[in-house]
Amino acid sequence: MASAAALLPNVERQRARFRFVLPLIALLALVGFVTVRGNGVATAADTQAQAEQYVRLALALDRLHDGEVDGWFGPALPDQPDPAIPHDPDGLDRAVTRLAASLATPGKGADEERRVHLRILVRRLTGVMTIIGNSPSDDFYREAAHIYGLAEPTDAEAAHWKEARTQLDALLPGEGPLVARLEKFRSRFIVPLDSREALFTQALAECRARTLAQWKLPAEERLDLVWTAAVPAAWHRYEGNLRSVLRINRQALALPGQAMDLACHEAYPGHHAQFVLADAAAGPGGLPVEDRLTLLRSPESVIREGAADFGVELVFPSGERIAFLRDTLFPLAGLDPADAPLYARIEALERTASGMSLPILARYRDGTLSRAAAAAALADEALVASPAALLDFTDRYGAYVTGYTLARDRVRSGLTRNCGGSPWEPLRALVEQPRAPPPYVLAAGFAVPSS
């Protein structure tokens, strides 16, 4: 969804990554109930039909509430004999309930393992529908744990965010609020509009080369770029068969670091590489139909975001990031290379300090902080450039916003502190199977979701 730089202040870019119009939905007919054989044991054909039904129901939810499906790259599903499609939440709820009941019938062997996973997916779908239908949660962090498996921030994490803000304050002396001083600093590094494609192309090539030095990707993988003003920022869509399309708005690349962050996060080793690896790891038949769809409000979606953000840091460790900015991107943008070290330091601290937004959003979502007070605190304390946009995002998606800071930090912690050696291989294992994060990631603060 988003690149790593200035993560929370750029909500429009974050949400834009993977939303798309669902052209298949008009072709999909829903049945109210999927039957199983009368002997009390489901067959593999039954399970396949129920998996397809789950996808239809999730796509129907996305039609009712745009954006709830984060990604879908499956084939057109077979037509169903019953043309009735739930056009209302109550009808959809009844259809999901019937599907859950039909999945209670056991299968055999590996098919039962698939059915267990389908039961989990249907429970999550039910949980998302409950959240949509209810008033805002009275416990922001409980929702984060229940839906996404993200434990509440620790005191050490909060202190780390606060220290980053303190350092920013010291590095940007002057009059006025820190958020205004930060904006003034940023204005010195605006990339001319006619140079932004060149910067991104250079950054993308570098991200791909560095990723391929660590991971072997299928030779057939392909990422097609489309420059367009029709998207607010960056919009990645995995289309299956190892191919993605990335649509980019030049306005999203105002700063040189954004070209690096977006190229890594959306492409290599981020979302494009993630889906390519997961698809390839599934074998010749690819992923099962239910795993070709990702709900936005799911642990897998949040893990992919955190992994994509951590991938930016892996591709460009601090010193190498400075060198690439200084030697390649700053000259292309007509900026003074001597300013690259300070620029990189400020953007890194800003990225860390963005975590201070979470306690503010939690109090806002829990009803103990007014919208006006929350907006002021987001600007003054968390240095959010667009508080209203972030609050609107939180109104719409609730605790999902935790994924833009906590997920990044937890993935980093899990892969660097607990597995030993280079993080590249454990990161690959994580993105190949995000639905089953390894123990060292769970230990870093990802809980097992109760959904």
From TrEMBL:
<protein>
    <recommendedName>
        <fullName>DUF885 domain-containing protein</fullName>
    </recommendedName>
</protein>
